Amino acid sequence: MTSIADAATEFLAHDRIAVAGVSRSTGHGGNVVYQRLRDRGYTVFAVNPNAETVEGDRAYRDLASIPGGVDGVVIATAPSVAASVVEECARLGITRVWMHRSFGGGSVSDDAVALARKNGMTVIPGGCPLMFGKTSDGGHRIMCMIAKWTGGVPRNV
User: Fold this and answer.
1) What pLDDT, on a 0 to 100 scale, did the predictor assign at position 103?
2) Within a 10 A sphere around the Cβ of 53, how many other Cβ atoms?
3) How far is the C-alpha of 138 from the C-alpha of 94, rounded, in Å?
4) Please, how many CA atoms are within 13 Å of residue 6, restricted to the half-sphere of its CB?
């Protein structure tokens, strides 16, 4: 098994990241992740099948619509949708998936995690990219410590 810190470092070492499940409304967890990745220099793509723009940027209907593909996907959808995002990742050869969760259920689905692993993907089932590396801030680092204690962030993936 890989530690969450090592898995997060490897995921965030890649530049082209899609965030599936961004909302047309600001303040949603996926939108916060999208904005921070964009602000920290990542080439980030908003995925929402029902929006043309998100956070002032073009939104894509699905991962296949993103020109040039992506290195990884942050899933910020309802858990019931996570497996379909993982299925699309598998079809497209995307091997890095992060299911967003800080407190509560977040986007993590046991079925989606199993499907990702079955397809040889590196999957981070919980936590938030903003808790690690250059995307983090003090508040997210404190949330990470608390979420590790409560099970919202896995210690190993």
Assistant:
1) 65
2) 11
3) 30
4) 7
The mean pLDDT of the chain is 93
Give me 23's structure tokens. 């909302």
Q: Which residues contact 95 (CB under 8 A, 6 or more apart)?
A: 89, 120, 121, 122
* pLDDT beyond 90 at 110: yes
Q: What is the DSSP letter of 3?
A: B
- The CATH classification number of 4-150 equals 3.40.50.720
Which tokens go with 71?
């290195």
Q: What are phi and psi of 146, to 5 degrees?
A: -65, -45
Which helix (H) or strand (E) segment holds residue 45: the answer is strand 43-47
What dihedral angle (degrees, nearest 10) is formed by the CA atoms of 9, 41, 32, 143? 30
This prediction's pTM: 0.94
Are 117 and 87 in contact, with CB atoms under 8 Å apart?
A: no
Sheet with 53-54: list strands edge to edge.
53-54, 57-60, 43-47, 16-20, 72-75, 96-99, 122-125
Q: What is the mean pLDDT of residues 101-118?
A: 89
Residue 9 corresponds to which tokens in the numbers above?
Answer: 């470092």
Q: Delimit the domains of the chain by residue range.
A: 4-150
Q: Compute the average pLDDT of residues 107-121.
A: 96
